[in-house]
């Protein structure tokens, strides 16, 4: 998950995800700079950006996506269907 230390919404989303995943963490989240995370063109990324990795155990992908959705998704009041997309909030590696 990407986190921007200078953005209140980004910090709040990180804290919400952390709270949802806490009981499944095998270790505390690992926070890396874009360079340390191996991102291409890391030098073009704002210095306030960090990459958070959540090492998890005993959770399947569907459960994980539901927890992340619970943490970050606020549907539109007029939404007829869920518009949640996991890839707008991070990447899942299983």
Rounded to the nearest angstrom, the radius of gyration is 14 Å
Largest sheet: 3 strands, antiparallel
Shape type = globular
Number of strands: 3
Q: How many helices? A: 2
Which sequence of strands runs across the widest sheet? 1-3-2
Give the assembly state of these chains: single chain
What structural class do you assign from the helix and strand content?
Answer: alpha+beta
Q: What value does the average pLDDT take? A: 92
Q: End-to-end span in angstroms?
A: 14 Å
The share of residues in helices is 25-40%
Secondary-structure element string? EHEEH
Report the β-strand fraction as a percent range.
5-15%
Low-confidence stretches: none
What key attributes describe this structure?
28% helix, three-stranded antiparallel sheet, alpha+beta
Brief synopsis:
The protein is 28% helix and 12% strand. The chain is α+β, with helices and mostly antiparallel strands and 94 residues long.
Structural features, described:
The chain is an alpha+beta fold and 94 residues long. Helix content is 28%, strand content 12%. It has 2 helices and 3 strands. The chain has helices spanning 8-21, 61-72; strands at 2-4, 30-32, 49-53. It has a 3-stranded antiparallel sheet with strand order 1-3-2. Helix 1 (8-21) crosses helix 2 (61-72). The chain starts with a strand and ends in a 22-residue tail after the last helix. The model has no long low-confidence stretch (mean pLDDT 92).
